[in-house]
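Notebook entry, structure prediction.
Reason for the run: the old model in the group folder had no record of what sequence produced it. Starting over properly, with the input documented here first.
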Amino acid sequence: KFSNCNGKRKVQYESSEPADFKVDEDGMVYAVRSFPLSSEHAKFLVYAQDKETQEKWQVAVKLSLKPTLTDDSVKIRSDRDKNLSLRYSVTGPGADQPPTGIFIINPISGQLSVTKPLDREQIARFHLRAHAVDINGNQVENPIDIVINVIDMNDNRPEFLHQVWNGTVPEGSKPGTYVMTVTAIDADDPNALNGMLRYRIVSQAPSTPSPNMFTINNETGDIITVAAGLDREKVQQYTLIIQATDMEGNPTYGLSNTATAVITVTDVNDNPPEFTAMTFYGEVPENRVDVIVANLTVTDKDQPHTPAWNAVYRISGGDPTGRFAIQTDPNSNDGLVTVVKPIDFETNRMFILTVAAENQVPLAKGIQHPPQSTATVSVTVIDVNENPYFAPNPKIIRQEEGLHAGTMLTTFTAQDPDRYMQQNIRYTKLSDPANWLKIDPVNGQITTIAVLDRESPNVKNNIYNATFLASDNGIPPMSGTGTLQIYLLDINDNAPQVLPQEAETCETPDPNSINITALDYDIDPNAGPFAFDLPLSPVTIKRNWTITRLNGDFAQLNLKIKFLEAGIYEVPIIITDSGNPPKSNISILRVKVCQCDSNGDCTDVDRIVGAGLGTGAIIAILLCIIILLILVLMFVVWMKRRDKERQAKQLLIDPEDDVRDNILKYDEEGGGEEDQVSEVLNLQNEIL
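New structure, fully documented this time:
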């Protein structure tokens, strides 16, 4: 080594005895061959020369034999052994402690010997203590420490952490791009040459485009690219044999081992998709959607099913209304041209689309190819038989109610969108809830077959809906529906009626008011305001009652006399609406006159209600009573029949005959339904 060199000089070394000794570039002196060395000092010269300035130096190297002990032994000795007879011993790991028996000492001579081969990789240092005692076992000197360092020998090869190393590098990477790091270890002393490793690449497969595509840092094991030209489409993987050698890589004395580095060249988008044809063809029936009309195929040299390979299609021209879309098939990478909006053959018979394909990710920098590929798609539209359609739909007409049967209302016709097909359309009726209409099957004229009534339950919000069907004679035949909405204008065809139809009042005028209104199924102006009045006949009506108009919709009925006997009275009321001409009606108000308490509440309602029961109510009550009696009689007959069966053991009598006989007996006992009806009629005559 040079003590005053800054390390920048390039020095070349030579030995004066090149047959025996050589000097490396780093100044290491080593023996070239094996030869015996005499005990006398050997001497030779080493020359150094600066390659640039040609300046020269020299140094003398002296070699001497290293003193060794016979049989790998060490001898210890005490100064007291001249006067005393001493005994020597050693203690510690390797002597009397595990691992025991490696070192032994001659108790007389004090010679320490090793009994087994030492392995520095297992135990690099032993720490023993030597003792000296007299023949009586008395310590004559303090114990001394003996430290034994095991000198390393190059007896271990380098070992890679993995036999196969995997790394990746993008294609097109520039020289100097880091790829991966391989690591080997050596069990020998890492601070000595025996454990200092150096790496190198032994081989590369394949050797294209260059046999030296990669290099390795001989100290760290880092692998980097050293040449350009990595192309995944040509070479997808490289296999390197890596060698690690100790002794700082000395090929003569170092031990070596190898491992495999597998470098995969990853894909980058350096190839755009390219259409396999300049023009693609397809066809689609009109009015069909979600139909694939053409498959666009492309080729891409990049790795399949990666963003650099996946194609994205778009329509760049020929579809201003957006009737087509292109989806990518994830498996084949084809472009599926699909109809997304209906196409009318009568409007467009053919489309010429301009389409473009590009990758999901942009092309890598420096690629000279255009980023996309273009092609044309010719789509032919096929004419099909379409549904006739009514226009407008629904069709609304306004018409007065009350039209007589046979009146022509309107013509409701449909249009055939198939202008290039000679077809006829016929009409039928689909829905006519009130059965008021008919349609001519040829010309679509709609005529009434019954009177139109706005007050019909089939009319909602003054509108009556009827549905008709138009069918053509195409192949296959098609049809369409249309709705006719008739807005019915009201006429004054309904007379008003009193509401409510029943009321209660007391026998005396105070309190003695009944508020009434009118019900008219017509609407303005054929309904209210209403006029209320009492008829002149019979004379008892105006004698007993008076009516007062409160407003256009309400009136008040009062007793005119001071007292009216309790009972049911039918009071006729004349109600006239505001129609033009107005319509009048005599409506009957059933008034229950009853005795009242001080609060004006009826106290004899039961008697009045019983006396005023109508025929229908009486019949219903009688029917309930008869059914109840029949059930009782059937139970009695059933009980008697059981008794007869037990006593006489006679044959069973038909239950129907038995029940019928009992019902006949019941009819003979009571007054029957006719008597009850006559009593009710008599009560009604008394009321009138």
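Summary: The CA atoms of residues 263 and 401 lie 93 Å apart.
The old model has been moved to the deprecated folder.
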